[in-house]
Amino acid sequence: MAARKIIHVDMDAFYASVEQRDDPALRGRPVVVAWRGKRSVVCAASYEARRFGVRSAMPAMRAGRLCPHAVFVPPDFTRYKAVSRQVHGIFSRYTDAIEPLSLDEAYLDVSDNRAGLPSATATAEAIRAEIRAETGLTASAGVAPNKFVAKIASDFRKPDGLFVVRPRQVQAFLAPLPVGRLPGVGRVMERKLADMGLALVSDLRNWSVEDLERRFGRWGRRLHELSLGIDERPVVSERPTLQISCEDTFEHDLLLEELEPAIRELAGKAWEGYLRERARRPERVARTVVLKLKTAEFRILTRSLTPPLPPADAASVADIACALRDRVGLPSRTRYRLAGVGLGGFADRDELIAQPELFTVPA
User: Fold this and answer.
1) Which of 1, 106, 238, 276 has the fewest CB atoms within 10 Å around its CB?
2) Domain residues of the chain, as ranges?
């Protein structure tokens, strides 16, 4: 079977770049996209801000300390989504096989590109040129025979770069990388592997798959496959929605009994997102309500309930989410810095109609 031709496209400092494009006074300056406040986190940072150590998901207060001269700009997601749609329109000129990962990045399978270009490299170059010409923004891209190698490659020449890994180069490309670059290897797993003397992908490759499987189960086999550059996952154009949620970090930590107004507001926002999803896919129905809480000590809790009938409106979602507080089980003096409400457990409407028949008791 011929190797796939996969491109991972990643917009450069996307939110911050949109702000700099639209406001010439911000160009060349350290821009931090975040609300100001003790509990706010950084949504994005321009490359000028990154030189000071500012990164996404960092507390905004810390970003301000690292870069005192940074310009803080509140995020405008409506504008970012509009630009993202424009970029995805460019992708669609070359292939239908597009798997969005977020507003600013996507996988494209261009094994059979509709523009008739001779290679994936030429296709990536054309896409990046059109993004620059039509949006005034830059994108970096990685080209490889599979998704995970393409994603790693797209980081190698950022910003505004292109890096190509051909099939015969995959193992040599991966060998010197730290194991933490492999998908699914977080800090905990990286420490476990380091304790075994496995710091680089080449170290991991030298272990037998049987030994890795004994230690880590099926994940050990997957690690060995990744170390060899094996990733058979296709580009999936339409992923089913697993959960729609909304969360908020409070300005001050709150007691459990004080959370009801915030929970009801979050339930309303989650319901609005659910209605948008239903307009897109009316056959999909959410059955489960999820309450997420984060304590002042950053412990994350989730509680969920699947009622006999799916929630019918925002009020019923809010009622269930508020009731889930009774199942938290922490001392009453515990304070919470964040709450979230989600809708999940999606099923097709036909399944829900048929389901009661399974439990019918004969007369």
Assistant:
1) 1
2) 1-174, 175-227, 243-354
